[in-house]
Design brief:
Structural class: alpha+beta
Number of helices: 14
Number of strands: 23
Radius of gyration: 28 Å
Helix content: 40-55%
Largest sheet: 7 strands, antiparallel
Distance between the termini: 68 Å
Mean pLDDT: 87
Shape: flat
Low-confidence stretches: 317-322, 507-518
Length: about 525
């Protein structure tokens, strides 16, 4: 239990958990122990075990005590309280810091508990105001007793308002999604898999070099394949590394998303809980929700998967990964993602993100083909130039890679064109684009505060236009790329009637008029 200091002019001041000393000491002890073992081994090889312990143990003790002292210091200098209007946080001695956050400006209260904090029965509380000012927009209290952290979250979010048109406090409260072990099959399809695979290969060679065994490792691996062709050996190594990367990606995914739940709370918030070793609890006010985004990374899309991200104002910034902090549903079957998107938006009918979209003209396909082929040919031109100047090997690398990259580029360009589309589905503007990362956004029309119309010289010649809906949520703008000029401008005018009309000249004044820029 936390201790309190009685205050005569308001609620009692609360301290952090008394176990801060143990938490700080444990955090320091874990890496210090690893460093002590490695250092002790090298010292023991050159001298004796007694000499190694004489050097290592005092350093280990000093590091652990310093970590514990840091936690003790945090406990002694930090206190907080919540009154009717503000959250007050006082910290520091030499340089005192006094924070007073108005409760109506608090947008999120996230709880995180890593294995150390879970064992100690505590959590980290991160209070976000939604300000895009790094740490200045986030207040972190560490560590807080778990029960006190839950109570603090409920108190700070008690002002959360329910969405417009929802008067029944019990309407649709409850579970929107629950973890399903079958979702795990999508984890290795992430782009993180080849990244971790490359890191595993490079890391193995680097560690071998530190111990002077790199040549031995290479020879050992080569002996596994005997007289097999070099191409076959290379393919086998790539497959093996991808398997290692897939296992690592799977482990990271399970740690992050195990026991995931998405609930609608009675206090007007969406609550996401997840994590195996480190548990995370993230809250989002529904009144701040401006839509959802169904994201289909290429690998997951080929397997029929997609995730759901929130499009909201005031998401916490800082230590928490921005993508994960707005993810409501991890990669799951696409049908489930669309259903969860509809439930989050309180849409009883068909999900807006699954609405039929208006396709874009063939000129948009030509632009994507030109971009793709131009990118490939530009890289091949560099190889050819270097091959002519340095070695013919690069010339062979150029034509071989071109045979592979040109068809891939064409396929991706055609896929990107097929992804393009837009429509208005009830209260939402729906737009889709992308191939490596295909995203379908359903943005509330009332959340659009402006439009940006972009048209390059080549777009103007092709009769295309890019229309960007400006909003206070998410990244700040969502684009309808390379739409037909008349369709794009008419879409903007229909999505928010009257906002763009003063800048348009139409051939007709009825609902089907074709708008053109002045």
């Amino acid at each position: 239990m936390s201790t309190s200091d009685v205050s005569a002019d308001g609620p009692a001041w609360e301290r952090l958990d008394r176990k801060a000393f143990l938490a700080g000491a444990t955090y320091t002890a874990i890496p210090a122990a690893g460093a002590a073992v490695i250092t002790g081994y090298w010292l023991a090889v050159g001298s004796s075990l007694g000499t190694a312990l004489a050097w290592v143990l005092p350093a280990f003790v000093v590091a652990v005590v310093a970590g514990g002292a840091s936690g003790e210091w945090m406990w002694r200098v930090t206190r907080y309280r919540v009154d009717a209007e503000r959250l007050h946080v006082h910290t520091g001695v030499v340089f005192r810091k006094r924070l007073a956050l108005r409760r109506e400006r608090i947008r999120s209260v996230d709880l995180t508990a890593d294995p150390v904090l879970r064992v100690l029965g505590t959590a980290t509380v991160r209070v976000g105001t939604g300000e895009h000012a790094g740490a200045e927009g986030t207040v972190t209290l560490w560590p807080v007793p778990r029960a006190s952290a839950d109570a603090l979250r409920a108190t700070l979010l008690a002002h959360a308002a329910r969405p417009d048109g929802v008067d029944d406090p019990d309407a649709d409260d409850g579970a929107l999604a629950r973890f399903d072990r079958r979702w795990i099959r999508f984890a290795p399809l992430s782009f993180l898999t080849p990244t971790l695979a490359a890191a595993a290969g490079g890391g193995t060679l680097q560690v071998a070099e530190w111990f002077g065994m790199q040549e031995r490792v290479i020879n050992t691996v080569g002996s596994w394949f005997g007289l097999a062709p070099a191409l076959l050996v290379g393919l086998a190594l790539v497959v093996g590394l991808l398997m290692v990367g897939g296992v690592a990606t799977l482990a990271l995914w399970v740690e992050s998303w195990w026991n995931h739940t998405l609930d609608r709370q009675a206090d007007g918030t969406l609550h996401v809980r997840r994590g195996l070793l480190t548990t995370r609890s993230i809250s989002l006010e529904e009144s701040r929700l401006r839509g959802v985004e169904v994201v289909e990374p290429l690998g997951a899309r080929l397997a029929g998967g997609a995730r759901v991200d929130a499009v909201a104002t005031g998401l916490a910034t800082g230590e928490e990964d921005k993508t994960e902090s707005r993810t409501l549903l991890p990669t799951a079957p696409k049908e489930l993602a669309d259903r969860v998107a509809a439930d989050v938006l309180r849409e009883p009918g068909a999900p807006p993100t699954a609405a039929p979209l208006t396709p874009h003209p063939p000129a948009a396909r030509g632009r994507r083909l030109r971009w793709a082929l131009g990118t490939v040919l530009g890289g091949e031109a560099v190889l050819v130039l270097l091959g002519a100047l340095l070695t013919p090997v690069l010339l062979h690398a150029a034509w071989i890679s071109m045979l592979v990259l040109v068809p891939v580029a064409v396929l991706l360009a055609l896929d990107a064109y097929r992804a393009l589309g837009h429509t208005i589905a009830g209260a939402y503007l729906v737009a889709r684009s992308g191939t490596v990362r295909r995203a379908t956004v359903a943005l509330q029309r009332r959340g659009i505060v402006g439009w940006t119309v972009r048209q390059s010289l080549l777009q103007r010649r092709a009769g295309l236009v890019t229309v960007m809906a400006t909003t206070a949520a998410g990244p700040g703008a969502y684009a309808v790329r390379d739409a037909a000029e008349a369709d794009g401008l008419a879409l903007a005018d229909a999505a928010v009637p009257g906002l763009l009309r003063p800048f348009l000249v139409g051939a007709h004044d009825d609902q089907e008029r074709v708008a053109q820029p002045r």
